[in-house]
Design brief:
- The chain is mostly helical.
- Helix content is about 80%, strand content about 0%.
- The protein folds into two domains: about 1-95, Rna Polymerase Sigma Factor, Chain: A, CATH 1.10.1740.10; about 100-210, Orthogonal Bundle (Arc Repressor Mutant, subunit A), CATH 1.10.10.
């Protein structure tokens, strides 16, 4: 294709580009990648925190999108659908790999709103066991609350985006986020208290043995 043809492709609507992709038009698919690569990369980077890993995940996302094009509802917004596929793939990737789980743990330790529920939860996890504490706390959340916390605080979806993706009213979404954060902070607080109690008992035990 010459430069004029490329310019013509660049001016086509997303819907038309998708139709051409389904007709196995390679240049049309190149346009899809060009239009949405930055958006997909930004989502992937939030999960990995590493440029190289985000690039790899971005390629995986576009492969998944390419294979799923025939499932796209032509009456829907393609950009919204693509974003949903990208986020879902990143969430699946996080759940399946220890590395992405540890990245989430690091992000969860900096919840801004958690302090309103338990004093200062961030200080509870600022030691060598922080990642383990938060990971276990996250795993103990009910699935619906954990999903809400992950989507809001890790992927940074808006309330409206979450409502659309989950098929729920915005009020329900906000409620789940607040309950999830509060429960996470409560679990972290109890875990830290248990750790301090165990440490004190061990110290007393050492003292008794030393007498």
């Amino acid at each position: 294709m010459d430069a004029i043809s490329r310019e013509t492709y660049g001016g086509l609507s997303d819907a038309r580009i998708v139709e051409l992709c389904l007709d196995r038009d390679q240049l049309a698919w190149t346009q899809v990648v060009a239009r949405f690569k930055r958006r997909v990369f930004n989502i992937a980077y939030k999960f990995t925190g590493r440029h190289g890993d985000a690039e790899d995940l971005t390629q995986e996302v576009f492969l998944r999108i390419f294979r799923s094009l025939d499932k796209f509802n032509r009456g829907a917004n393609f950009g919204t659908w693509l974003t949903s596929v990208a986020r879902n793939h990143c969430i699946d990737h996080y759940r399946a790999t220890k590395r992405e789980r540890e990245v989430l743990v690091s992000d969860l330790a900096h919840f801004e709103t958690a302090t309103a529920h338990s004093g200062n939860p961030q200080s509870l996890v600022e030691d060598r066991d922080r990642s383990g504490l938060v990971r276990r706390a996250l795993d103990r959340l009910p699935a619906k609350l954990r999903e809400a916390v992950v989507l809001r605080d890790l992927t940074e979806l808006t309330y409206q985006e979450m409502a659309e993706q989950l098929g729920l009213p915005e009020g329900t979404v906000k409620s789940r986020i607040n309950r999830g954060r509060a429960e996470l902070a409560r679990i972290l607080l109890r875990a830290r208290q248990d750790a301090r109690r165990a440490s004190s008992e061990e110290t007393r035990a050492r003292g008794s043995r030393g007498r």
